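Please produce the structure of this protein holding 3-isopropylmalic acid.
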Amino acid sequence: MNIAVLPGDGIGKEIVAEAVKVLDALDLGLEMQTALVGGAAFEVHGHPLPDSTLRLAKSADAILFGAVGDWKYDKLERPLRPEQAILGLRKHLGLFANFRPAICYEQLVGASSLRPEVIAGLDILIIRELTGDIYFGQPRGRRTAIDGHFPGSEEAFDTMRYSRPEIERIAHVAFQSARKRSKRVTSVDKANVLETFQFWKDIVTEIGLQYPDVALDHMYVDNAAMQLVRAPKKFDVVVTGNMFGDILSDEAAMLTGSIGMLPSASLNATNQGLYEPSHGSAPDIAGKGIANPLATILSAAMMLRFSLNQEHAADRIEVAVKRVLSQGLRTVDIHSVGTRLVGTAEMGSAVVTALKN
Ligand code: IPM
Ligand code: MG
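Below is the modeled complex.
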């Protein structure tokens, strides 16, 4: 089992190191190879996704990814910005199905900004289409900065588009996932305004006919954003496009207490997958050793389950994470009175210890 390890920028290096520590402790004989990506790769190779990194990722059974991005690259022309590395990996590897489970651990009920009764027992799955939509349409606009200014353009646009097969395959993923859960799918769109999302809604409805055992409902994205904080437990599987999924998954993350808790899996048609925390590179806290590594550690568990067929090892990681939370250990993002504040490395080590006992 070959794993490409791509830590990236900011807190990426710190949190991935902890996930690697946990994977090592499992003694599964994983072959892990590390490469540069994002701003870190730009510094050395002049490109955020160098050929060597892309080749390593393509040949791996799975990819463990940290995070990319730093404000200091904001002035670069877009193709050279760190974010293009993760977008490029998603596109080149065809990782169209993004799973973002938002689970509220009972130990963290108090860490959310919402009332405990609203989120206790929350377990929803956001399925975000990841290789289409306005993210991969036709951009046009300010490309190159000269002395911090962008000359010569009075408008900018990005095109939103989806093709039938793109919607069909993500709809199948959602219905099949729902079959393993409570057999309910909410498809989120903006069909009242956008043609792209009327098309989305029609095709999801059509595919739904093949899954008569799964209940399907539709919701506009603005309403979905509201319902997510009003009564999040009413949702089970949520399927949506790339852009809405980006926004709603950040919102859902906060229901769990912290975005530092939300793992993700991005799969292609052959179940090759990229696993990353749903949060970013957090340059403001990078290098301080305070970032929460649990989203990345839980992403490693998803990797074992989805791409490497190591269900048991995945369970072990998840149990160990719960145990560490029960012991009262908290990084600063989930810390509250009466719990013990720990740093990134201490949290990772505690998970390793919990695994072994
Ligand atoms: C995410 C991130 C990325 C996205 C960025 C870093 C390109 O926000 O994975 O949610 O927008 O998809
Ligand atoms: Mg995002």
